[in-house]
Design brief:
The protein is α/β, with parallel strands linked by helices. It is built from three helices and seven strands. Strands 1, 2, 3, 4, 5, 6 and 7 form a seven-stranded mixed sheet that branches. The N terminus is likely disordered.
Length: about 160
């Protein structure tokens, strides 16, 4: 950090490293949901971290609640999230915010033995994230889902019939 700097005056390299750490955190969350162990998403949040969807008043708070929420997704769910336009703003040496646009392709009933025919995304929206740096590590403090386009999760049989 710049000597005698205020929190908003970060050295360019320090700001760049913070932005990259937060961006990587967003991408790691998506990887864990789609390709890893969804229950471990909670480890990317602060101990008091929050995931919320204001539309239906859904609010999941704390690592154990987040573990249960994300770990409780159906075992036969196939999903891929496409994230783009990730804009991280570093507010201080220990806080940042981000906006990330996404589209989610998702079906239930997937057995892993075939390619699922393509259809429109189940959801398109963006996330509003806040980050805190704790013990030298950037973590999500909150993630708010903004979902202007969404629908029910299709079942593999429904997708096959739609072809």
């Amino acid at each position: 950090m710049i000597e005698n700097a205020t929190p908003h005056q970060l050295a360019p390299l320090e700001r760049l490293l913070a932005e990259r750490a937060c961006e990587r955190l967003i991408l790691e969350l998506v990887r864990r949901l789609d390709l890893g162990d969804p229950g471990t998403v909670c480890d990317l949040f602060t101990p008091d971290g929050v995931w919320e969807w204001p539309y239906d008043s859904r609010r999941i708070e704390g690592r154990e609640a987040l573990r249960a929420y994300f770990g409780g997704r159906p075992a036969d769910r196939l999903s891929r999230r496409m994230c783009t336009n990730i804009l991280v703003t570093v507010d201080s040496p220990d806080t940042a915010t981000a906006t990330t646009y996404f589209a989610t392709y998702r079906v239930d009933g997937y057995s892993g033995d075939a390619i699922v025919p393509t259809r429109l995304p189940a959801n398109v929206g963006h996330y509003e994230d806040t980050f805190r740096k704790l013990d030298g590590r950037w973590l999500l403090a909150s993630r708010t889902l903004i979902l202007p386009f969404g629908g029910p999760t299709a079942h593999v049989d429904e997708v096959d019939r739609a072809r």
